[in-house]
Amino acid sequence: MAHIETFLLAKAEKDEAEKLKSIRVKKELELEFDLGNLLASDRNAVNLRDFRAQKKEDYLRALARDNTQLLVNELWKMPSERVEGVVVAKLPEPTTRLPREKPVPKPRPPTKWEQFAKLKGIQKKKKTNLVWDEAHKEWRRRWGYKRANDNTKDWLVEVPETADPDEDQFAKRAHAKRERVAKNELNRLRNIARAHKLKVPGAAAAAPSRNELARAEQVAKVSTASVGKFQERLPKEKAPRNRGKKRAFQPNIGDFSTERQQQLELLKVIASKKPRMDVTKAVNKQMREEDMEAASKKRKGAGRKGRKGGSAPRGKAKGKAKAKGQGPPAGKSRQVRKGLGKR
Asked: What's the rounded Cα separation, in Å, for the pair 181 and 187?
């Protein structure tokens, strides 16, 4: 009975030892460590006999475990300190330059408020999300839906003594809120423009033009389920221009004779070796060439007549003929020129 207990105890210790492997790992060549990058480089050759005898996944898993254990052993040799009950090791500067697909992102430039807070020494304090609501006598959110001390839900507003008694205080509050939202959005856009080194728009530059407003109105009207078909128009509003035509699609079910004819014409064009000729373009080109040839012959004939008389050079004779109206204009057709010659 004692032998059985000893055997079971030895087997349990062996199984426990296999589960909890030793932190001491033996390697023929020491690993190269870059603790700044948590990198360990193993220069030892792979044992092909063990790699082929065992499963590939098991062998690689055991190899990765041993190298990780050596890296952890090196980390415990570094100076450490305890921060909030956790042991933290101080890593050295990395020595291996790791490749990057893109350059290191530049730090975001501070906003105007961050610059002002740094100049005045204002430190950001974390606020709690819940505050006490005196009206409802309970804790509520500071912002958002059902927030505490929400004055937009008041059904009665006191009119100040200096205000106009006929002024709508509810509309005044809504207008002030819209102005605050617009101001915050403008400041956000300015910060983005300043971060990208763009020209910071002012109040006048931020205002949209008339064309932009008209374009935005047109886009808003057609941004409905019916594409603006049932959208009401103002009394003097004109119909939008340049809306374009919708693409007409042929029915999927019906008479296929038209589709068959179109496909046959397309196949004829593809199968024909001769290129398609534009008759109108060819006729216009031929007429233009004939007109140019006739005009050149007429100019040559006018030059020969001037040389026979001997009264004036060639250039002057041409000038006189044009001044008297004998030469036809260059853009007229052949038929019109014949008529001018008869006159």
From this structure: 10
DSSP per residue, 132-201: EETTTTEEEESSSTTBTT-GGG-S--PPPTTS-TTS-HHHHHHHHHHHHHHHHHHHHHHHHHHHTT-PPP
Three-state DSSP at 176 gives: helix
The predicted model scores a pTM of: 0.31
Q: Is 149 left (phi over 0), alpha (psi -120 to 50) or beta?
A: left
- Secondary structure letter of residue 167 according to DSSP: S
Outline where 199-278 has alpha helix (H): 203-206, 210-221, 257-271
| Helices 279-309 and 334-342, axial angle in degrees (round to 10) | 30
Asked if the model's pLDDT at residue 14 lies above 80, the reply is: no
Q: Can you read off the two tokens belonging to residue 299?
A: 């100019």
pLDDT per position as a tens digit, 294-342: 999 988 887 776 655 555 445 444 444 444 444 445 444 444 444 444 4
pLDDT value of position 285: 92
Domain range summary for the chain, segments of one domain joined by +: 28-94
Contact 110, 104 (CB under 8 A): no
Q: What burial class does residue 328 get, using C-beta atoms within 10 Å of its C-beta: 0-12 exposed, 13-18 middle, 19+ buried?
A: buried
Read off the tokens for 133.
């609501």
Which of 32, 67, 19, 75 shows the shortest CA–CA distance to 46? 67
